[in-house]
Amino acid sequence: ELKHVVIVGAVDYIKREWKTLQNLPKISVLNGSPLSRADLRAVNVNLCDMCVILSAKVPSNDDPTLADKEAILASLNIKAMTFGDVVTNMDSMGDSKDALNNMGDTSVKRQGPIYGTNVPMITELVNDSNVQFLDQDDDDDPDTELYLTQPFACGTAFAVSVLDSLMSTTYFNQNALTLIRSLITGGATPELELILAEGAGLRGGYST
Fold first, then answer.
1. Residues ≥6 apart with Cβ < 8 Å to 195
2. Burial class (CB in 10 A: 0-12, 13-18, 19+), 129
3. Residue 41: enclosing H or E segment and its boundaries?
4. Whole-number pLDDT of residue 159
5. What CA–CA distance (Å, rounded) separates 96 from 90?
6. 77-86: pLDDT as tens digits
7. Distance (Å, rounded) from C-alpha 188 to C-alpha 178?
8. How far apart are the C-alpha atoms of 105 and 153, rounded to whole Å?
9. How many angstroms separate the Cα of 113 from the Cα of each of 4, 13, 41, 95?
10. Taking the chain, what is the end-to-end CA distance rounded to the nearest angstrom?
């Protein structure tokens, strides 16, 4: 079952991407900014199953190291927040809570983490070297490879270059897609789903 998706951002940009977003069965949009703590509290960011911060596309003439400026600031902003009683927050928001009335009563009663550092979050990065700014307590060398950094190893950072590498690998080796799918889904493949649908089930070999 797909999760309820709540998007915080500029409505003008979301309108341009609505042809793709409208396929999601449960989606709410709040016209605001992830840099605003009031907007983050309005959507109860501490109650989310996963907070995904997307990096904005910057013009080519700008400094590439600044491409992830807003994404990193948004990530650090959430980590620095503290959250109290959920019901108190909802009551104090006033009209702002009306934008998310369709989220259901469970989101109000659910108790989330008190500190922003405990909010599950993944940040998209355009420039790999900017991963050093996501974890202020990490003393890694700025020249450390992306896959050796703590945010990437913990799954809190994802670089566009990783997706490019996966696409390139899949193009030259079609079996790589099966491996990637197995790593993500735990081995569920169309062939396995067909076998299970026919009622054959999984049978152990000699080693089991």
1. 201
2. middle
3. helix 37-42
4. 83
5. 9
6. 999 999 875 4
7. 9
8. 35
9. 19, 30, 13, 24
10. 33
Q: What are the start-end ranges of the H helices in 94-198?
A: 106-109, 150-153, 160-172, 175-185, 190-197
Q: Dig out the tokens for 57 from the structure.
A: 């596309």
Please tell me the distance from the alpha carbon of residue 29 to that of residue 43, in angstroms, as a whole number.
Answer: 10
Nearest C-alpha neighbor of 9 from the set 35, 48, 27: 35
Rg over CA atoms, the chain: 20
Q: Are 123 and 134 in contact (CB under 8 A)?
A: yes
Question: Backbone dihedral region of 58: left (phi > 0), alpha (psi from -120 to 50 degrees) or beta?
Answer: beta
Check whether 94 has a pLDDT greater than 70.
no
Q: Is the pTM of this model over 0.85?
A: no
Arithmetic mean of pLDDT over the chain: 75
Contact 120, 48 (CB under 8 A): yes
Q: Under a CB-based contact definition with an 8 Å cutoff, are residues 124 and 158 in contact?
A: yes
Which CA distances in Å does 102 have to 1, 7, 38, 111?
17, 14, 19, 18
